[in-house]
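Hey, quick one: can you model this chain's 3D structure?
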Amino acid sequence: MKDLTHGSIVRHILAMAPPIMVGMISIMICQLVDLYFVSSLGDAAVAGVAAAGNAGFLVNALMQVLGVGTVALIAHAVGRKDRADANLIFNQAVVLSVLAGLLTLVIGAALSRPYMRSVAADQATVEAGTTYLLWFMPALALEFAMQVLASALRATGIVRPAMVVRALAVAINIALAPVLISGWGTGCALGVAGAGLASSIAVAVGVLMLLAYFRKVERYVALSAAQWRPQPRHLMRILNVGLPAGGEFAMMFIFMAVVYYVLRDFGAAAQAGFGIGQRVLGLIQMPALAIALAAAPIAGQNVGAGNGARVRETFVKTALITTVVAVGFMILAQLKPELLLAGFSNDRETMAIAFLFLRIISLNMVAQGLIFTCSSMFQGLGNTRPVLVSSVTRVFTYSLPVLWLSTRPGFRIEHVWYLSIAATTLQAAMSLWLMRREFGMRFASQDEAAKAVEAEPVAPPARAPA
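Sure thing. Here's the predicted structure for all 466 residues.
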């Protein structure tokens, strides 16, 4: 366990962000590897895998329920020096992860094809996306356990083990992808099914490695079968914090589904170009997101310790660092987009759309970095409802206008991206206002006490008797 209630906040952020970023980039690389090797199968396969991958946003919503609730409550317990509560929350979260994984498998098997029919441009894309989803679903189910184990470590200030496991899982996925997709060395090419299977095998190995770490190394929080009996009160504690954060990811799923729905009139190449551009954009946003995520355990432990001034300082410094990083990557995307998009498709139309998307949407990066920061801070505070409010606002201010414009003459694909910039900027402004409001309500008493102490007259030193 690492105590984050003392020491330099910037140092804590910079120490935790790189391992978090490596872990997240590992996930993104898995998706990019799938797209890279699937691209040889044609536009329908690329569009199908990209659209199927959007279903991961919905599963990520459920993962966030567990991850955010676990980080917030364990971090608060660490700040209070309440190890017993930290262990109880951890083991109850493990139970929830098993239940959520099983639910994902059942629902995924039932709804994969109906989902693809609702968003795909043609039947070939439907078939490719459905096949990929069915083989990728075990990976999504196992990610719940991976999320809880990694979140428990992050709440205690430990991030390196999860990074190492993610990196090894990516190496496994990269090694398996060409073998299973294209049949390298075996002559048995599974196509898009191989892409999903490679990811599922890699995640399964990762979960086993993290479980081994908890059994042999981790001491502050530990797996305990005696605490696996579901306890409704503590399950609700996790869900009360996590559900609004899960709702935020559900809003992202709706947002992306609307984009795919609008783009289907432009054809499979448009959906494929958007899928490639979106994956690359997500990759270059990872540094800012990693910095923002480092703020949650720092804020959470200091909330548990009752140190409001340090919580505020965490927000200010995190926002400044994420802004600087976002500006740097935005400039790269504007000046050298070809460096980021090279090699994903030989189709000119697909790549032209990917270039256009990246140039326009990268202008969002500063606003998105501030959204990341506010979201992570609300997680650390243990109140994620404001995050859901700002996400709902973004979905409505984007979806309704873009659906209306898509029915009007002269509608162009650029309009999809420009509306996204406007909606994201509005969400960033609302998130900042909600953050300021939360600080005012939560720490008002501490601020008044501090002012009272400053206003007290200093008594003159007593004179020594003559």
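One thing worth noting: The radius of gyration is 23 Å.
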